[in-house]
Amino acid sequence: MIFLIAGHGGGDSGAVGVNGRTESAETIKFRDKIKAHLQNHGAKFKTDDDRDGLATVLNKCNTGSGSVVLDIHFNAGPKTATGVEVIVGDDAQGNDLALAMDVLDVMIKYTGLKSRGVKKESQTPRKRLGVMREHGAVCLLETCFITNETDMRKYDNVISELARELAMVLIRHDAKAS
Predict the structure, then answer these.
(1) Which domains does the chain have, with CATH numbers?
(2) Where does the MurNAc-LAA domain start and stop, copy by copy (predicted)?
(3) Residue partners of 32: CB distance under 8 A and separation at least 6
(4) Structure confidence by residue, pLDDT tens digits, 83-110
């Protein structure tokens, strides 16, 4: 089962970036584009409810060892900060790392942005991320820097291709896990 999460629901706007764009609105838009491709391919998946906060989203997930989880976010920082990174749990196994690398590869290939790599959750400012307690192959995508005009333009130019390719990555990993 695929679990597709748009970070910062439940009234949390997340980061605010270029032209006032909010992380929550951007993650929902991106999730819904990926969701459409999953539906077109008959994939078995669940998404979060935009009204739910993180604790509620995680309580509703009910992931198992064969699950594939992608939590979508956008990074924030100085206007010059750039790139894509994917976060995995500190206890990441081969399936987590393979999913994270495939997600990162798609993002870099289509956006042309700098790879900031696959990082462990303890390397993030928060040090511990709730979604990493879920079961199965789990990763958190920091799509690009919402505070960088070039990052957002590159992302906007290929969002449809990214959604299609990420859906295919999720479907492949779900098939491996079954």
Answers:
(1) 2-177 (3.40.630.40)
(2) 58-169
(3) 6
(4) 999 999 898 889 999 999 999 999 999 9
Residue 174: count of CB within 10 angstroms of its CB? 22
Question: What is the spatial order of strands in the sheet that 68-75 belongs to?
Answer: 45-47, 2-6, 68-75, 137-145, 84-88, 115-120
Output the six-digit token pair for 6: 């748009």
Q: Enter the pTM of the model.
A: 0.93
Measured over the CA atoms of residue 55, residue 91, residue 63 and residue 44, the dihedral's sign is positive
Residue 154 tokens read as 């590159």
Q: Which of 131, 85, 136, 125 is nearest to 108 (CA)?
A: 85
Token digits of residue 1: 């089962």
| Joined tokens for residue 8 | 């910062």
